[in-house]
Amino acid sequence: MTAPSTAGAPAATGAPVLKLTGVNTFYGAIHALRGIDLEVGLGEIVTLIGANGAGKTTTLKTISGLLHPRSGTVEFEGADVSHVAPHDLVRRGIGQSPEGRRIFSRLTVRENLLMGGFTRSKAENEEQMPHVFELFPRLKERIDQKGGTLSGGEQQMLAMGRALMARPRVLLLDEPSLGLAPILVQQIFAIIREINAAGTTILVVEQNALQALNIANRGYVLQTGEVVLSGPAAALREDPTVRKAYLGEN
Q1: How would CATH label the architecture of 1-93+168-250?
Q2: Computed from CA positions of residues 94, 98, 101, 103, in that sequence, does the dihedral angle turn out positive or negative?
Q3: Strand 218-223, strand 30-41: pairing
Q4: pTM for the full model?
Q5: Do residues 158 and 112 touch, judged by C-beta distance below 8 A?
Q6: Domain boundaries, given as residue ranges, for the chain
Q7: Measured by CB atoms within 10 angstroms of the end CB, which terminus of the chain is less buried, N or C?
Q8: What does the pLDDT look like over 148-188, one tens digit per residue?
Q9: How many Å apart are CA 96 and CA 103, to the nearest integer?
């Protein structure tokens, strides 16, 4: 088995659809991301793992335009999108299911989904919604129910379904298993595989490192805003440092 690389980013298996080069992102004076290099190949599942505060969510926010890098570049499909507004990135094909779900609790399931499809026409939304319901049949059962009355697992399904309404070519998932019962965790990761198999490239942030590495093609380990380890997911699963720090093994 090939050992994980610690020198730069591993090559993506498909054509790079998403690429970060030397990205430095700040919160005021706080240097949150330090020279991040990262690639996601077309059709891949790539995972970011690391402890709380490592910079995982900041990386996704930088990609989605909620934060802009002070230096370095974010490229999507070959174009520099480092300073593009979030809503324009959605139109270009980057979707995100955020940490904590962030659904509209007073809106129904249907209304939440339509909010996710704000960049699409009414006809496109009517066409896309049945596809979302195929992935998440529970949402169809709850279609007229207020988002705030759903269970945690159902809210996570709604957050992911809402992101899919815009038909993203790259889907960013931030802690999709957070706070879910083990049986629901298995279900969510199975659905992530289905979404990817249908043609959507995925970048997933997860504290459940084992689950993430089990579905990913490649992974990056972040520590205090830097990539400290990267490589094929299978190799990372066997790396002693990863096993001890993130998989709970001695």
Answers
A1: 3-Layer(aba) Sandwich (3.40)
A2: negative
A3: unpaired
A4: 0.88
A5: yes
A6: 1-93+168-250, 102-164
A7: C
A8: 899 888 898 899 999 999 999 999 999 988 888 888 888 88
A9: 12
